[in-house]
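BUG: 3D viewer hangs when loading the predicted structure for this chain

Environment: internal workstation, default settings.
Expected: structure renders.
Actual: progress bar stalls at 90%.

Input used:
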Amino acid sequence: MPRSRIAVSGSTGLIGAALVRSLRADGHEVARLVRRPAAADDEVEWDPHRGYVDVAGLVGCGAVVHLAGAGVGDHRWTEAYKREIRDSRVLGTAAIAEAVASLDTPPELLLSGSAIGFYGDTGDRAVDESAPPGDGFLPSVCEEWEAATAAAEEAGVRTVHARTGLVVARQGGAWGKLFPLFKAGLGGRMGDGRQYWSFIALHDHVAALRHILDTRTLSGPLNLTGPDPVTNAEVTAAMGRVLRRPTLFTAPAPALRLALGDFAEDVLGSQRVLPGRLLDSGFTFAFPGIDAAIRAALR
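Structure tokens produced before the viewer hung:
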């Protein structure tokens, strides 16, 4: 897209911060949504739980990229934290969508975060965007999360749901917790290691978001995952190869369930998700393989 003003929520997170850097490097003006009174010219106040957005801060935006939400793996899944996971996504997305819809001249695009958790446990069956939602907590959250953009869609705003996989990065997310363990020689497979992990390099994730911003024909769900999902055992072997460390340790399923609670079922679950629509739209991955993605994260 030509140089324009783009609003970004979740701008301090792993993906949001990288996207903001990329946009600014190419001359775009970025308005960052913050959950406190705005203290800088590039900040826009919002409160997802109250459903409040300072709509004046969105005036003139060509696109809104909504990436905010409580971290799925940040805490043990108590009932209270599961409510926080759901509310931070559903209430926040509804607030953004309603703010976008209320503008006299709404942005062309609402690019809203989602997750491959939508599909639930797919075993060794490969799925793309045509697959139905799965069963369980995360699929139900993802369904509500995506439905919360309805106000923007009804206002005629092109809306994309970016269903993100496991982002390979050192700075944060699930992989950010793996790197120190593997560097210390304490890494290993989780459970039986046969579960598929659908990964994407951080570089490719940001490039895919930029591709969506630039490709005006895209709408609806898009899987932001690499083209070649691998099993947890293959991830373990790749981390050992790239970091040159032993991978002798294992985390048995009962121990993971004890440590992580309900979240363990998602760590042990298998998701073999393919980026069908992204590939069909002409996107090219810079780091499609697991070894290359891990090496890119170490640069």
